[in-house]
User: What shape does this take?
Amino acid sequence: MDLGPARAPSPTIPVTLTVNGRRQQLELAPFVTLLDLLRGDLALTGTKKGCDHGQCGACTVLVNGVRINSCLKFAVSLDGAEITTIEGLGTPDNLHPLQKAFVEHDAYQCGYCTPGQICSAAGLLSEGHAHSREEIRELMSGNLCRCGAYTNIADAIEEVMAADSETTVREAAE
Amino acid sequence: MRQFSYLRPTGISDAVAALAAEPTAQLLAGGTNLVDLMKYDVAQPSAVIDINGLPLKEIETLEDGAYRIGALTTNSQVAYDAGIARDVPLLSSAILAGASPQLRNAATSGGNLSQRTRCYYFYDPSTPCNKREPGSGCSAIGGVNRIHAILGASDACIATHPSDMCVALAALNATVEVTGPTGARTIPFLDFHRLPGDHPERDNTLQTGEIVTGIRVEGGRFAAHHSYLKLRDRLSYAFALVSVAAALDLDGDTILDARVALGGVAHKPWRDPLAEAELSGQPATRDTFEAFASRLLSGAKGQGHNDFKIPMAKKAIVRALMQAASGRPQVQSEKRVREGESL
Assistant: This one.
């Protein structure tokens, strides 16, 4: 590949991010993606690199509560943001309801897409636009599962969504 | 990825000045296309101007019932905006037909307009491509061209514009607001993107240093009779092979005004305003729509692998117009053919 004349290395940029509740002051080269920052410097390897081009959803994390593909974000463009990864959703002793439901419904085979699926499902639930199984399937279409666990993934999300709405109804009644 | 310098202007005039001063710089908004193109070494900006700090994130309702959509609104923000969903449902529907929720959460309105083609040769720097490297040739002509243009192509380029949102904006006669070194101006949507001609490296009519600041779109008029129908290789999260944005203004069964824009078939959203004008006064029937579809596609030319798009587009135009006329627009989460709906 012809890379043309050499360009001077990019100076680093100061960036503050809060990752899973922990405030981090970082000095980053501008080409570092959020995905590479998480998996590299921050050693949070739960977030997976699948395609690295926004086509598979394995790298999905929550930025200020909103799900995005971390492979397509330069970390320097997120100064001040709050990032939640799979490590920040639950712990082995205290699973997030989605993590529990994925286990109970066997919503994976190899597990590589699972952190992205769960972060994406967490985003889907907080967005509140899915009200049926068809809408769950459509609004989870940004997460591919090459093992083909889609049926069980939809089951797991449907169960948590139903439990959430029951809680909401109960709280409203109280 | 190549080295680049990183700038973060906080005002529109600073951003315009930075872009005008360094024509090899590129603007960064949601990044969903630019970061990808940089990873493939297709985009090689000397500087990245991060405009996420600019005050362009609002959706405003204007006095005449129109909407002004800031360039940095996200696709999700626009699609789910209560006013847009009620008054400009064709736009909401088209946005929700595109990409994935994660991408729509990051991608912006201005970025959507400025995204590059998904031609596989454009994405592969080891192959000739007039859009990526002017004068190098077109690998898609005579190559693998299943996803390519059937309308408005040139000997230099047969790429298509990949947006869904832009197809709806074209149908709705939106206008694009831009600011450049000499001030602000508006561009009618149909004049924003261009056909490839001899300069396929130019996707749009923006001048050096100009930044898209917003999009203005009228509300209400086509809310009752519209449909965005997108046909692709899988049910979701794929670019259109053919898409149709149809909008009708009806008096009973008589067409007062009709707008039809096609996606996935040309270098820009494809419309034929003269053919649309002839629909005025005609009954909103299948016969009317079939004749219109034939006329809209009269200049269509296949490249070999994409010949199927011509009959597919014809059926899609008729179906989208039937959906619009009946007030039953295509639903983007449930794509099976509904009872009582014929292909």
User: Anything to note?
Assistant: Residues 10 and 40 of chain B are 29 Å apart (CA to CA). Chain B has a mean pLDDT of 97. Chain B has twelve helices and eleven strands. Residues 227-326 of chain B form a domain with the Enolase-like; domain 1 fold (CATH 3.30.390.50).
